[in-house]
Every structure is written in C-alpha cells, then in structure tokens.
Design goal:
Elements lengths: L34 H5 L19 E7 L15 H8 L4 H22 L14 E5 L5 E5 L5 E11 L2 E8 L4 E8 L14 H9 L5 H19 L10 E4 L11 E8 L5 E9 L2 E8 L13
Antiparallel strand pairs: 1-5, 2-3, 3-4, 4-5, 6-10, 7-8, 8-9, 9-10
Length: about 300
C-alpha cells in the first residue's frame, strides 16, 4: 500500500514564524512495557483508542464516520448558534462534512471525559458543549450555558471516511492528534517536511514499507504542531524527531518516540499506531512553563 499525506499543509504553505522559547522538562512516563500489546488488540478505528494507556479520567477519544453525516443545519440541533453560524459559512460540501464530523467527535470526547474525569462541569448533551476556534484556530471548549471556557482541551483531525478527536484536562498537559488515511502520494514531497536525519531513517526502510514510515513521521509532526497550539506558524521541518537507528524498520503496528521544536522546547512524547487503512498519532507534553501563551480567547 502507498500512503497519502492527507489534507495536511505542506511545509511551504506554513507561514514563517517563531514560538516563544520554553524550558524543557521531564516527561511523565504513563506508558508501560505492555503498551504495544494493548495498541495492537484491534485493527479498527474505535472510540477509546489510547485511553487504556493513561490513568482513568485523563484522556478520552472518539471517532465519527463522515459518510453517515447529514450536513444540513436542520439535521444537527446539537450545534450551538455560534457553531451553526460557522458551519453555514462553509460552502464546499467536503469542508462542511469534515468540520461537522470534527466538532461532533470533539463534543463526544468531552462528554466521555466529563463522565469519569472528576470535573465540576457535567454536560449531558452535545448542545451543552461549544467548540469554537481561538485566534490561532485551535479548538477551545466552552460551556454553552455560561459561555465560559472549561478546563478541557481537544484536538481534532479528519482524513478519508473518519473524523477523530481527543479530549483531556487543559491544566495537566498539552496534546495533539493527527489521523491520515492510506492513499498514493509523490515521494518528491517528503523533503518539505523531513530533516536530513529523518530522511536517512526513511531510506533505511525497505521500499515497499517506506510509505508507511513516511506517514508515521508525518502524523507525528502534525500531532506535535497541534499540541504546540501555534496554528500554521510552525514549519514541519522545524519539528525534529528523535529516532533510534533502525527504528522505522521494526515490524510493529505501534511506535513510541519523542520530538521537539528545533532549538526550543517543549519536548513531546509521540505514540503512533496503525488501524486498518489509517495511521493515528498522539503527541503530549507536561504543562508548558516559561514563555507559553494560552489561547483562551473566544
């Protein structure tokens, strides 16, 4: 199989920019030696992926089948007025479907997390939750009743037939999710996202498996970019992945490694796994310290 780089923007499409420096820190080691066994238990995209690898109430994940969505406003009373306004401005059918699937996945993940996460806020329906973009386009979770942000964060991705989202406490760490589907792509695009050391590791992989290796690294970088919360100001080539020699040649459906924004923190742990025709990557880091600016503006 060959893999596409999905809808992810290429490095040349990222606007030049710099994040403020952050101090590196130790990573919490939530994952045990049995992580790979748990990840390979299913070959399908199902709610709850990654959840068993973390303490209860720390993470929730959901998927939405885009093919089943009604993209008319009348078909979604669970959207808030502000969300309906955003959706009504999307004229292209695919864009409407992807946006809607992502918002519904995020709301479902929030409810899933709120039931076990020890929050004072207890949404009982999707309409109790509002997910709106910040000034950097990062999704922010609000209570639709009070209009105030809640101490949760979500990360959204969509590719092929599915939209996906993860939710977690916003006061505990930073996280990002990326999902990509298997399709054909042009290897000439690889240099736009990968550094020389990463290309060297890709070239060590047998040609028939190389597209999979490319997608593992691509989704990892996209997940880190989302976790940084800086929008499109970071070029994927500026995100460096720490890859042990021969790492991509391992015959495993799940991989764990680290990455960071070149010349400045924080350091992220990345967990990547294969599910059927999809690659899913989750990136996370402990709370950021010096120089971090949150995106809690409505």
């Amino acid at each position: 199989m060959c893999f596409v780089l999905g809808q992810s923007p290429l490095c040349q499409d990222h606007r030049a920019g710099h994040s403020r420096g952050c101090r590196a820190f130790e990573q919490p080691d939530y994952l045990g030696e049995d992580a790979e066994l748990m990840l390979t238990a299913t070959a399908l995209l199902t709610d709850g992926i990654f959840e068993d690898l973390f303490p209860t109430g720390l993470l929730a994940s959901t998927f939405v089948d885009l093919a089943q969505l009604d993209t008319t406003l009348q078909g979604h009373p669970d959207l808030t007025p502000a969300e309906r306004d955003l959706m009504s401005g999307l004229r292209v059918e695919k864009r409407r479907r992807d946006w809607l699937g992502g918002r519904l996945a995020a709301k479902r993940a929030v409810i899933r997390l709120a039931t076990v996460g020890g929050f004072d806020w207890h949404p009982t329906s999707l309409q109790d939750i509002e997910v709106l973009p910040s000034h950097t386009r990062e999704p922010i979770v609000y209570s639709s009743e009070t209009g105030l942000p809640v101490p949760m964060q979500v990360s959204i991705s969509h590719s092929g037939q599915f939209a996906a989202a993860v939710a977690s406490r916003s006061d505990h760490w930073r996280l990002g999710l990326d999902l990509e589907r298997a399709e054909a792509t042009d290897p000439a695009l690889y240099h736009l996202a990968f550094r020389d050391s990463e290309m060297w590791e890709i070239e060590r992989v047998p040609p028939r498996l190389r597209p999979v290796a490319v997608l593992v690294l691509w989704t990892a970088k996209e997940a880190i970019s989302k976790a940084l919360g800086t929008g499109l100001s970071v070029c994927l080539q500026d995100i460096e992945l720490a890859l042990p020699v021969g790492f991509l040649c391992e015959n495993s459906s799940s991989r764990r490694f680290t990455g960071y924004l070149r010349d400045r923190g924080p350091h992220f742990t990345v967990l990547t796994c294969c599910r059927g025709d999809y690659i899913v990557s989750l990136a996370w880091a402990a709370p950021l310290q010096d120089g971090w600016e949150g995106s809690q503006s409505r």
